[in-house]
């Protein structure tokens, strides 16, 4: 899979409704995963059915990702988006991560996560939020 760059939007508990709306507007295939499916931070807080990750891919080549803001993280409208870099080329994506995080602030270190991918979040030195997700190469 080639690396991709796309927007990633955070929501305040209504990610499912928002992403289903965007699918109704743009068409395409929508995949949703909840916090409960992965034993994430929603456990025991009534958040198990909230969206941990959603991805809409359209036939026009659009990709939009989004999720509900996890418990314990602040939701701030107007700053509730990031640029996502994802793919399976670990060397390429780690290189982007190193350059983007240099001089910035790392919120989540680039490391293996509960869903099996290597993932990190940072804000670059210009205040732009980035997410990097490295999936295992498919053989």
Oligomer: single chain
CATH class: Alpha Beta
Low-confidence stretches: none
- Give the percentage of residues in beta strands: 35-45%
Main β-sheet, in a few words? 8 strands, mixed
CATH superfamily: 2,3-Dihydroxybiphenyl 1,2-Dioxygenase, domain 1
Instruction: Compute the average pLDDT.
Output: 89
Report the C-alpha radius of gyration, rounded: 15 Å
Fraction in helix:
10-25%
CATH-level-2 architecture: Roll
Count of helical regions = 3
Structural domain count:
1
Shape: globular
What does this structure look like?
By secondary structure, the protein is α+β, with helices and mostly antiparallel strands. The protein is built from three helices and eight strands. The protein has an eight-stranded mixed β-sheet. The protein is globular, with a radius of gyration of 15 Å. It has a single domain, classed as 2,3-Dihydroxybiphenyl 1,2-Dioxygenase, domain 1, CATH 3.10.180.
Task: Lay out the secondary structure.
Layout: E1 4-11, H1 15-26, E2 29-34, H2 35-38, E3 51-57, E4 63-68, E5 81-87, H3 90-101, E6 105-112, E7 118-123, E8 129-134
Parallel strand pairs: 1-4, 5-8
Antiparallel strand pairs: 1-5, 2-3, 3-4, 6-7, 7-8
Organism: Streptomyces pratisoli
Protein name: VOC family protein
Descriptive tags:
alpha+beta, 139 residues, 2,3-Dihydroxybiphenyl 1,2-Dioxygenase, domain 1, 8-stranded mixed sheet
Brief overview, please?
This protein has 139 residues and is an alpha+beta fold. The protein has helices at 15-26, 35-38, 90-101, and strands at residues 4-11, 29-34, 51-57, 63-68, 81-87, 105-112, 118-123, 129-134.
């Amino acid at each position: 899979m080639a690396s991709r760059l796309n927007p990633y939007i955070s929501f305040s508990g209504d990610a499912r409704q928002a992403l289903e709306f965007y699918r109704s507007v743009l068409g395409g295939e929508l995949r949703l995963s909840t916090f409960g499916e992965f034993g994430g931070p929603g456990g025991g807080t009534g958040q198990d059915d909230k969206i941990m990750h959603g991805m809409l891919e359209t036939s026009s080549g659009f990709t939009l990702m989004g999720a509900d803001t996890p418990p314990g993280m602040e939701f701030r409208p107007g700053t509730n988006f990031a640029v996502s870099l994802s793919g399976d080329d670990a060397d390429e994506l780690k290189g982007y991560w190193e350059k983007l995080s240099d001089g910035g602030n790392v919120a989540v270190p680039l490391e293996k996560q509960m869903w099996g991918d290597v993932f990190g979040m940072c804000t670059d030195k210009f205040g732009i939020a980035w997410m990097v997700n490295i999936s295992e190469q498919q053989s």
